[in-house]
Amino acid sequence: MKRKNTLLLAALLLVGSACREGNIFEKKQVYTPITLYFSPMEDYLTPSGYTPDFVNYPNDWVKWGLKGKVKTVTCKTLHTFSLDFTEDGKLLQSDFVGDGGGVSEGKQTFFHYNDSNRLESITSKGTFTMMGGRTSRFAETLENKILSYTPFGKVEKRSYYDFKGKKVVSEKQYHYDDKGLCRTMSPTDDNSNKKRGILDISSDEQGRVADIYEPNLRIPGRLTIGERHIVPAYDEEGRMIGIKELAIPHNMEAYNIDSIRVENQYKYNDKGDIAEWSYHDIVYPGNRPNDFVCTFSYVYDDQGNWTSKTMTGGIAYLHSFMNSYYRGSYTINRVPSEERNDLGEVTLTREITYYNTETEL
Fold this sequence. Notes:
This is DUF4595 domain-containing protein. The protein has about 350 residues and is mainly beta.
């Protein structure tokens, strides 16, 4: 009996060792789509040029919250946005075309890879098209972002080259820990950082985003341009469940705003997509609170990617999104004897093609 127990214990230890080596008992890493760090409603308003900053992700599909071997994503609302990927999940090109009522103004971003399949540079071009009796078009190259690598294949530096000024205007350094995780990526020039909107990001010991400083971005839910400091929170599974923000408008006197303190909370559905977003902020110096809850419902394709996302919330908040970005409709949801509760509804649809099927879903 003693010999049997000894053999059983040895077998269990052997299996346990094999499982550990094969990572069977390890939790699957949960990655937050990078768009969620900025706003759960603004999927395609997040500049695609931010994509290479999130170096602790396995590929660009995961960064954009996509499943399967996605080839293209096209989103058509009041404006048109598209993403093109390589067969191994690298972002190849993004296009944004804004319809301004007879005038289209957009931005194209191209991602260039070298013979070693490493991202070498990113080129951005501004486009302008005027429709009418005649059509005039031009494209202007705005800047080129050049990446350099360590001997171990890690991104070491990102340089921002201005074509107009014909010079490098800013640089960002990437620093790694002993496990190879990037812990900080910081611009070397503070003034240029603020002018050009270059992200300053730090990560925790698991490689998750711990802090983002945005020096030049529109504040969600408001038409003000300002700087934001973002601190995410995660649950035990690794899902991001909230963000605390401090937002400071650039033109504070015009808006009579000193700062905006924000708390966001998120709940998820069984597919891992946002089901509910609770928002609370306080505007200083007037101590004016602003609260809303936005719910999300989806239609999915066979790969588990959503092809339609409907966002429902207070009209006051959704109104600016509907007029500026999305097609949607208002629905009145109130009973005469109850407190007024007008809801707005915005639907975002997208078409996705895949490398494995070549079929548009």
